[in-house]
Amino acid sequence: MPKTRSNGLEFIVLVALLNAMVAMSIDTMLPAIGAMATELGATDPNSRQFIITSFFGGLTIGTLIYGPLSDSLGRKPMIYWGLVFYAIGGLICMMATSFPMILIGRVIQGLGAAGPRIVSIAMVRDGQGGAAMARIMSFVMTVFMLVPILAPSIGQLVLMVASWRMIFAGLLVMGVIAAVWLALRQEETLPKEKRAPLSLAALMAAGRETVTTPVTMAYTLGTGCVFGSFVCYLGTAQQIFVEQYDQGAYFPLWFGCFAVAIAISMILNGRFVMKLGMRRISKWALRTSIVVSAVFLLAGLTFGGHPPMWMLGLYLFTNFFCCGILFGNYNAMSLEPVGHIAGTAASISGALSTLFAIISGTIIGQAYDGTVIPLAAGFTGLGILAFFVTEWAEWRRPKPSF
Known about the structure:
Oligomer: single chain
Helix content: over 70%
């Protein structure tokens, strides 16, 4: 059977599938985390949040590993290793008999999911450049944006006919399909003669440059602030919508609605960023997020932590619209000064921002007390922190010479 090259519809769909595994592994869980925690003996109601954050923990570690190794060992071998760890983690989760066991499985699953996620983008870069790469990535991101809209409904449907363990079985099947498809239909995009020797000294030098570049680290922290709010939301969404607001049957609908807000903002950002500039759009998006979060926090306090459902929905839609603008722009601005080591810098920046997001999002999520106050306070506080560090970054940015 002939293998496909790094172009065409089949390649795009394969890359989209490899990317979608991360979002599917998070969002299909959301309707089920309450049942998982109860069945596996978690005593604290907020402990269910660790089913989400533990996956991000593994993802953070994997982000640092797969990119540099794939530059030296090839793309396909590292994706295979990622899929192996993903399958092992999924099997542990599916057969879990205790809450710590499922958390271990989720860490391993996240570690594995990082491989397909990171290396598949490198595969696109190997075969395409400029507008051609942008075209492929636009299709990939379209699929990636659709997953959060549909995934919670898939999880809810599984729960209607089977145990939550079948969600992990479905993810396992998805991983097997990806592995077989990659083996049979996709050629290696990085031939041996183009591979870089694995050098610890070079990696350390690139890492040192990344963490000592003020603009890069400031926007890395800014990305972590935005992502930290999102991690907090993911961890507490099931508690807020299903238990606090009794929206169990409609939870996937609400979640999909907010995912649509992110998708719309990404589309509009792509359309207007060249005309208005990343910094200008990002500043207004961040300021809007801070203002609406502060207003919603005051409203939440006024209503004793239980504002009307329409108010919560309007707030989250607006806020996630702003987050969709900030995610892509902050990532791009963090890499501007380190373009000559973009691959390693992206891995380090991504890992550090995710680590900060896990820590901050978990702390805020664990403060959940049956009201929306911790969520609103977290969005407000992290937004203010992002404002100060990014303004500092702009102040430190070298001024053009004339």
